[in-house]
Amino acid sequence: MPALIHPSILSADFANLERDLHAIATADAAHVDVMDYHFVPNLTLGLPVFERLVEVSPVPVDGHLMIADPDRWAPAYAEAGAASVTFHAEAAQAPVRLARELRRLGARAGVALRPATPVEPYLDLLAEVDMILVMTVEPGFGGQSFIDGTLPKIRRARAAISEQDLDVHIQVDGGVSRSTIERAAEAGANVFVAGSAVYGADDVPAEIETLRAMADQHTH
Ligand code: DX5
Ligand code: ZN
């Protein structure tokens, strides 16, 4: 499974989002973090900005919704043209209904788990989603350090996906960099979000390529 690199524009310049999307034109998708001051203690951007980002992005947009009540708010992000819409398991009332709705609207559906949320309740529902996002930091802010305690969860999720012969991606988000990407890949992740590691690099395209090559050597 080839490694996919999704830089997070949370570490971009919010006054120059279009320019900074073009800086990652060689990435596989742009990861856009939507935060609402309720589900997480931070606020980023909402639907009107998201819609414009989809329009101007040179790569598909991967929406990560860190918001309360995604059952109500997430479908509009699929309607906006996101390639994938990921909502948090902890916030959703009816995750299967929501995932089905996102797929019906043409987006890939992702379910995100905070570091302390177990994956086991979702293992029998894997066929309903296209991606599991294992948060490798507590959601809310960029630049935090990778939590190694999430690696066993990634391994268990990957084993269940293989056992059921499904094509479900495992995304990791938070603290992903040259020093952590290999162990995330080795554990079974195949989609790698990196904010500060990519946008903080002197040469952004080169950093994307380096991270992709490192992950590729360790993905299964
Ligand atoms: C954090 C966001 C991440 C964030 C990652 O809650 O979901 O996408 O941008 O930033 P880094 O890669 O700097 O940890
Ligand atoms: Zn994110």
TrEMBL record:
<dbReference type="InterPro" id="IPR000056">
    <property type="entry name" value="Ribul_P_3_epim-like"/>
</dbReference>
<dbReference type="GO" id="GO:0004750">
    <property type="term" value="F:D-ribulose-phosphate 3-epimerase activity"/>
</dbReference>
<dbReference type="InterPro" id="IPR011060">
    <property type="entry name" value="RibuloseP-bd_barrel"/>
</dbReference>
<dbReference type="Pfam" id="PF00834">
    <property type="entry name" value="Ribul_P_3_epim"/>
</dbReference>
<feature type="binding site">
    <location>
        <position position="8"/>
    </location>
    <ligand>
        <name>substrate</name>
    </ligand>
</feature>
<comment type="similarity">
    <text>Belongs to the ribulose-phosphate 3-epimerase family.</text>
</comment>
<feature type="binding site">
    <location>
        <position position="31"/>
    </location>
    <ligand>
        <name>a divalent metal cation</name>
    </ligand>
</feature>
<comment type="pathway">
    <text>Carbohydrate degradation.</text>
</comment>
<feature type="binding site">
    <location>
        <position position="33"/>
    </location>
    <ligand>
        <name>a divalent metal cation</name>
    </ligand>
</feature>
<feature type="binding site">
    <location>
        <position position="173"/>
    </location>
    <ligand>
        <name>a divalent metal cation</name>
    </ligand>
</feature>
<keyword id="KW-0413">Isomerase</keyword>
<feature type="binding site">
    <location>
        <position position="64"/>
    </location>
    <ligand>
        <name>substrate</name>
    </ligand>
</feature>
<comment type="function">
    <text>Catalyzes the reversible epimerization of D-ribulose 5-phosphate to D-xylulose 5-phosphate.</text>
</comment>
<feature type="binding site">
    <location>
        <position position="64"/>
    </location>
    <ligand>
        <name>a divalent metal cation</name>
    </ligand>
</feature>
<keyword id="KW-0119">Carbohydrate metabolism</keyword>
<protein>
    <recommendedName>
        <fullName>Ribulose-phosphate 3-epimerase</fullName>
        <ecNumber>5.1.3.1</ecNumber>
    </recommendedName>
</protein>
<dbReference type="InterPro" id="IPR026019">
    <property type="entry name" value="Ribul_P_3_epim"/>
</dbReference>
<feature type="active site" description="Proton donor">
    <location>
        <position position="173"/>
    </location>
</feature>
<dbReference type="InterPro" id="IPR013785">
    <property type="entry name" value="Aldolase_TIM"/>
</dbReference>
<feature type="binding site">
    <location>
        <begin position="140"/>
        <end position="143"/>
    </location>
    <ligand>
        <name>substrate</name>
    </ligand>
</feature>
<feature type="binding site">
    <location>
        <begin position="195"/>
        <end position="196"/>
    </location>
    <ligand>
        <name>substrate</name>
    </ligand>
</feature>
<feature type="binding site">
    <location>
        <begin position="173"/>
        <end position="175"/>
    </location>
    <ligand>
        <name>substrate</name>
    </ligand>
</feature>
<feature type="active site" description="Proton acceptor">
    <location>
        <position position="33"/>
    </location>
</feature>
<keyword id="KW-0479">Metal-binding</keyword>
